């Protein structure tokens, strides 16, 4: 026991100079080699556009790390101290071992995202505003598009890969635009929520003007992709004649694409008025199930696309309710609503019902599309994956909620694989 005490005291004596010298590296290097972006004075023609790039000195939560010390940070593994730009949730009762670092917009020192490593410093806040460092949202938006395009393929043939590439790029841009709108509208709320207070607009790294300019660029690029869709026209038949008009010609692909913007722009407001913003997100995120089919077929087959669409809506209610449990304490404090607060301790039962409805709708859509047997084999595997999420998630553990949420990209991949092989064997 004496030797153990001696070892502890000796180790403390050794750790103090080591830790102080390690921290001194940060201060000295930041003074000597960190890059500073100053406020523009428009002194010459080369500085007129500099106001579009963030002022790092004025950011309330920016933590500067020099390039020379990036390699040092990746190898720095202290046993008693971890340097982070986030305060975590240690101050919350009973949750000190459940860090939010996996959800923060600023990287933990030593674990930088690809945006921090590879993109120029002036562009990084815009990339984080579009959540390019968190691709899960793009996957969740893109999968229903891919399902629909593949389901619309001719039996025995591969899907249209050019159309899939267009929809993939569109999903990336539309998701980025949605995140930008969300951060602009929620900038005051985000400052009060632990998980979101370091987002570029909320932290002051970007101004609302920067965000609006970036939103305009994303929408302009999205319009270019929408115009690439063929000028399909469909005849929509109505059961009754209204003023003698039983046929109405419609450029359905472009109209559906433009209509999705109404959902994207209004979604961030839903949590202020209803406990069901996750349902509205489902209507928004799965719009590609309608658009993908129309882009290939030039029409909508309600018996196929509507069950496919609503299967995605129910799926979204599962994964976004799990996701919302990360913020439920902050949501109560701020005064916004979610299905996590609405369901409370009954969340598992509600999400089970949504999961059953999602799988049932997928089965109905595949049956109406006369798809081959491999689809149902993959659907069974996807059902198991969804059941694993619902029944094993620890809704009081922030890390586990995020882990289950991220796993939904594999659910989407299983459904896509089932449709792909099912069409090949149709």
UniProtKB/TrEMBL annotation:
It catalyses: an all-trans-polyprenyl diphosphate + 4-hydroxybenzoate = a 4-hydroxy-3-(all-trans-polyprenyl)benzoate + diphosphate. Its EC number is 2.5.1.39. GO terms for biological process: isoprenoid biosynthetic process; ubiquinone biosynthetic process. InterPro entries: HB_polyprenyltransferase-like, Prenyltransferase, UbiA_prenyltransferase, UbiA_prenylTrfase_CS, UbiA_sf. The chain crosses the membrane at residues 136-158, 164-185, 205-228, 279-296, 302-323, 373-393, 405-425. It is an enzyme of class 2 (transferase). Residues 87-107 are annotated as: Disordered. Its cofactor is Mg(2+). One of its GO terms (cellular component) is mitochondrial inner membrane. Keywords: Isoprene biosynthesis, Membrane, Mitochondrion, Mitochondrion inner membrane, Transferase, Transmembrane, Transmembrane helix, Ubiquinone biosynthesis. Pathway: Cofactor biosynthesis; ubiquinone biosynthesis. It is a multi-pass membrane protein. It is found in: Membrane; Mitochondrion inner membrane. It holds the Pfam family UbiA. GO terms for molecular function: 4-hydroxybenzoate polyprenyltransferase activity. PANTHER family: 4-HYDROXYBENZOATE POLYPRENYLTRANSFERASE, MITOCHONDRIAL, PRENYLTRANSFERASES. Belongs to the UbiA prenyltransferase family. Catalyzes the prenylation of para-hydroxybenzoate (PHB) with an all-trans polyprenyl group. Mediates the second step in the final reaction sequence of coenzyme Q (CoQ) biosynthesis, which is the condensation of the polyisoprenoid side chain with PHB, generating the first membrane-bound Q intermediate. This is 4-hydroxybenzoate polyprenyltransferase, mitochondrial. It comes from Hibiscus syriacus.
């Amino acid at each position: 026991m004496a030797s153990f005490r001696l070892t502890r005291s000796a180790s403390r004596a050794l750790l103090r100079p080591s830790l102080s010298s390690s921290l001194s590296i940060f201060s000295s290097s930041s003074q000597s080699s960190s890059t500073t972006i100053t406020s523009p004075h428009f002194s010459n023609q080369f500085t007129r556009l500099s106001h579009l790039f963030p002022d790092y000195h004025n950011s309330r939560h920016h933590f500067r790390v020099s390039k020379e010390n990036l390699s040092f940070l990746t190898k720095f593994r202290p046993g008693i101290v971890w340097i982070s730009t986030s305060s975590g949730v240690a101050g919350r009762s009973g949750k000190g071992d459940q860090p939010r670092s996996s959800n923060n917009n600023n990287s933990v020192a030593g674990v930088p995202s690809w945006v921090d490593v590879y993109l120029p410093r002036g562009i990084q806040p815009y990339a984080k505003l579009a959540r390019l460092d968190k691709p899960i949202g793009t996957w969740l938006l893109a999968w229903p598009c891919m399902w629909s395009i593949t389901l619309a393929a001719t039996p025995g043939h591969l899907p249209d890969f050019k159309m899939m590439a267009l929809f993939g790029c569109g999903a990336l841009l539309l998701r980025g635009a949605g995140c930008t709108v969300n951060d602009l509208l929620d900038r005051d709320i985000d400052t009060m929520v632990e998980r979101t207070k370091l987002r570029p607009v909320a932290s002051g790294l970007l101004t609302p003007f920067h965000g609006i300019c970036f939103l305009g660029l994303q929408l302009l690029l999205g319009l270019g992709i929408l115009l690439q869709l063929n000028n399909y026209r469909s005849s929509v038949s109505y059961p009754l004649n209204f003023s003698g008009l039983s046929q109405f010609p419609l450029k359905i692909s472009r109209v559906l694409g433009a209509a999705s913007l109404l959902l994207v722009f209004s979604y961030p407001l839903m949590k202020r008025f209803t406990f069901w913003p996750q349902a509205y997100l489902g209507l928004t995120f799965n719009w590609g199930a309608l658009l993908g089919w129309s882009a290939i077929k030039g029409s909508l087959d309600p018996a196929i696309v509507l069950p496919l669409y609503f299967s995605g809506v129910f799926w979204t209610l599962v994964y976004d309710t799990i996701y919302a449990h990360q913020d439920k304490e902050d949501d109560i404090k701020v005064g916004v609503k979610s299905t996590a607060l609405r369901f409370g301790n009954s969340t598992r039962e509600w999400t089970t019902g949504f999961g059953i409805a999602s799988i049932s709708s997928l089965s109905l859509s595949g049956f109406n599309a006369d798809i081959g047997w491999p689809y149902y084999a993959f659907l069974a595997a996807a059902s198991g994956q969804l059941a694993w999420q619902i029944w094993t998630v620890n809704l009081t553990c922030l890390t586990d909620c995020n882990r289950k949420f991220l796993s939904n990209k594999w659910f989407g991949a299983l459904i896509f694989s089932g449709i792909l092989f099912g069409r090949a064997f149709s």
